[in-house]
Amino acid sequence: MRSIGSALEMYYVDYNEYPQNLDVLTPDYFTSIPDYPFTPAGTSCRYFVDSTQTAWLLISNGPDEEVDVPGEATIDWSWSKSVAGQLGGPYYGALSGYGFSSGDGGWSTAENTRKKGDIGRGGP
To answer: Fewer CB in a 10 Å sphere around the end CB: N or C, the chain?
Structure first.
């Protein structure tokens, strides 16, 4: 996720906006978009960009491999806790962001990496 986030930031430097989809990052920023271990085989993270193309969010299904953070219609881009960096997971702890709570029904927690919850990364 960090690599994809870095590629998104490089794209922003070049075009002054984030892309509508990750496919445009190849071949200039990646030879191929990396797969992520908690998503179905052969897929990457779910990617969302706001309507002004100035903020982005990547979401992985997390250790339980289920979608716990819903899709684009529920993202609150104006929310004051949009996060630049990691959301949830074993190394960063449970963080709230983009209008989603931590733990059950939201981001994965540090206490139990098998606990229900997704892992995300946002920017800028």
So the answer is: C
